[in-house]
Structure formats: structure tokens, C-alpha cells
Amino acid sequence: MLELAILGLLTEAPLHGYELKKRLGETLGHVWGVSYGSLYPALARLERMGAIEVVDPPAPPAAPIPIPATGSIAGEAAAARLRRPLRRSGRTRKAYRIAAPGRALFAELLRGDPAPGTDENRAFALKLAFCRHLEPPARLEFLQRRRAALADKLARGRKASASDRYTRALIEHETLTAERDLEWVDSLIAAEHGAINAGDSIVQGRTT
User: pLDDT for 155-169, tens place per residue?
Assistant: First the structure.
């Protein structure tokens, strides 16, 4: 899932590792935390696959323009300071951008089912964050799959029974959560239908 998040952010603009971590925290901090220990190995894997590439570093600064002698001690000292090469602060950071194979991989990961054992809620939240990159029919299909999963979870919760009040309370909580999530996804589906219908109306208006 981390690869999906990295590729999704790099579709917008090249980013350094630090910037990627910051953006991932802003976008997905409520879903899971991303550490440098997981980010840089994922970047290395994607780079080896050819999905991302390092942006060429900026060209070195031009040679300093010769400054003629001034004939004074103060002037010579100022000229020497201007000739002194600038010091680099810290090591150069790599900036990454998405490559053509990375765009294909991003689309595949965004449309595909999560890997076995993946937290479904977390996977859905991550994909929803980048859902705008899908075409409207694909977005609608993605939301409808989530609705079907929630409806199934809700049906199982309503059938479940427990012998003690703590387990019953847990089942009730999960059932209420599934009900709220189902209502929320229904609102997203309705909005998606509205956007698709509005787009169709615009196209029809242009062709008539």
C-alpha cells in the first residue's frame, strides 16, 4: 500500500524523500504512520522496478566572473570573498518523479483488490484519497464494491449473537459503525452518479 501512496503523490509533482514523508503524513496520518525506515526501502524498490526515477540535479553554478584588482586592501578583501566558492549545507537530497511504468503500476494498484491479509478499511481509505485519478465509471465501481462489503458486514453483525454483555456491546458498536459507513458510502455513490449525469448532459449539450 505504501507503493500506491508514493506513486499517487508523485503523479502530481516530483518530491524529495522528506517532502514525500510530510505529504504522506498529511494525507494518510489518520490511517497509518509512515517512517523513513519504511519509506526509503519502498522508494528503492520502485526505482529498481523503473516505476520512479531520480530527477537530474540542477546544473553546477557558472564560473565566477573575474573581478579586477581594486588597488585597496578593503577592495581586495571584498573581491576575495566574492571569489570564494559557496559551501554546500548537508548532502544533496534525491528528488523522485514517476516514470511511465510507474503510472501503469499506479493505475493497476488503484483498480485492483488489496493483497491478502491487508486491512480492508485502511486499503479503502488509501484508495479513496487517490480516487480522483480514476475515470468516473471506475470510481463508481470502486465505491459499489465497498458498499457491497459493508452491506455484507452489516448483515453478519445483525445475525450475530453473544452470551455476555461485553461481546454484545462490541457487536452493537460494529453494527452501528457499519450502518454509518454504509450511509456515507451511499452519499458518495449518489454524488458520483450526479457528477456522471452532469457530465453526460454537458456532452449532449455540446453535440446538439
Answer: 998 898 888 899 999
